[in-house]
Amino acid sequence: MGKWNYRSVNPYIWLISGIMLLSGLFFIIYTTVLPTSQRPPRQVDAANAVEVSAKVLHAAESYRVLEQFQARNPMLPQHSFGALQLARSKAAKGIQALVKKAHILDTYVTPDGAQAVYFVQRNEMQSPHAWTQIDVLTMAPETQQIDQEPIGYIYGEDTEAVAQSTLLCGFISKDEFLYTTVANADQEWVYVVNKFNMTQKTVTPVLELFRYEPLTAVTGGSQPKAPVLYKAVLTPDKKHLLIRDSMNGITSYTLETGTKKGIIPGSNERRSGEQFEVVGESGIALYNANRFQSDIWWIDTQTGSAKQPFSSEQGLIEVGMDANGKVMYYNFTYDRNPANLLIGPDQSLLLSYGVQVLDTGGHPLKRFSLPKDSKERLEFGGYSETKKAVLLHKYTLATNKEGRTYKKTSGWLFGDMNTGAMTALNRLDVPDSWDKSDVVVGKATLEPYSQAAEEQVFANYLDNSYYMCRWKTKQMIQRQDEDVIIYADEPSKRVFVSSFTRPDLVVAAFNYKKYNWDNKAFSWLNGHWMSRHQIQPEGDKVYLFQIN
């Protein structure tokens, strides 16, 4: 073998070797020497965010939000919002306050019903800088006590993503709740679950869900929107979280271990016409990319399992739960003809022929239906656990003076959960000598053109009679042990208090039309207190009033 001569090596090979050597040296310098703050930012992609668990923050210490931000982010620009400015004004039978230069994201009520809890957002824009602060504002109407404390603070331009992602997951005691929010960590945004103690006014980290590093001007082009948390719910066992976000979709988290389980593939993007709801306190969530289709996902939020138990149904279905959370149900049709839908500008109604009652595990209990060729239709109206009876709404289709189709009530029936028999009820004009324990309350939405097009029925199981409520309402509180019904009549902007035993009589009424509310959201507290808020450009207005 001849002696090797480096001069005989092709010069192109030398050139390629040199380029590779320089590239390797540059990579080492870039990753070990160049400070983090000088690197071009990156965007965490959902496809690259494959994790088996979230980061559990067991040993994390409690802190105050503003102090924590200043201590951990000394290089980021700072801005002081100061305390929330509340301008209280006189209000009959209640509390009224203007939250200056701030907007209410949502309203909650403590488990003991004593306090209203508001998440309040403030933004400050000083181009090219932007800051967002989220405060918790609590009001106890009985004691007139008002408290506030920051629970979120972040530097970054996408203020809307921060506001949408700050959500109350649920209470773990009467004065502690879990919530999600976004925090700074150098250039990254950290999406976290925290615990807030309302007594000590401190925050304790619980879980780190994921991180995101926003793209900035150095990369050129427009900056993409930051990830958003759409929904975050603490399960009834208080051991898991069900979260839906724009990166991971619908995901289950175990609080103790951080175990993360993706449930519905492709659910990270919200679509027009989809259905996603967590059903009351049942621990059940429902998801369907196309509403009224039988391939709806039934999600057990405590185990993170999902199934499609109704896929064998040949028609359209509409799944729901009774007002007291005792049973699930779905209204159904025999085929998927579009004529089985009554479509309005903001909602659609299913024109069903029958009702399938289920337990909270999705297993069928009893089925009630009309023949396929029937001119009448049948839907779920209400349920009594003590009577083991389903209240069924029977109706035909009619046309009003404006030429719009609506449901015309032809009767109400009781469906017996033991025998499957259906009993027609007799209508009364004046209910009298009723016992509250015999009364079952139901409701039906009559047309899709108005959010308040509902009617209520009070049915007496003992004598198979019913009374139709004369006021249209969208939201109602039932307190059967107190013999009290509280409901809002949207068309006339009134709140009424009536009873199970004499639903034809109004015990008390309060007119709130003069406050010009632009939203229908309200919360109920102990002592018949109502909490509402009004959105205004200069700052939202909070109002708590008592209905005697």
UniProtKB/TrEMBL annotation:
Keyword Membrane in record: yes
**Protein's name according to its UniProt entry:** Uncharacterized protein
Q: Which SUPFAM superfamilies match?
A: DPP6 N-terminal domain-like (SSF82171)
**Organism of this sequence:** Paenibacillus rigui
- What parts of the sequence cross the membrane? 12-33
Gene3D superfamilies in UniProt: YVTN repeat-like/Quinoprotein amine dehydrogenase
Q: Which domain of life is it from?
A: Bacteria
Keyword annotations for this protein, in alphabetical order, are: Membrane, Transmembrane, Transmembrane helix
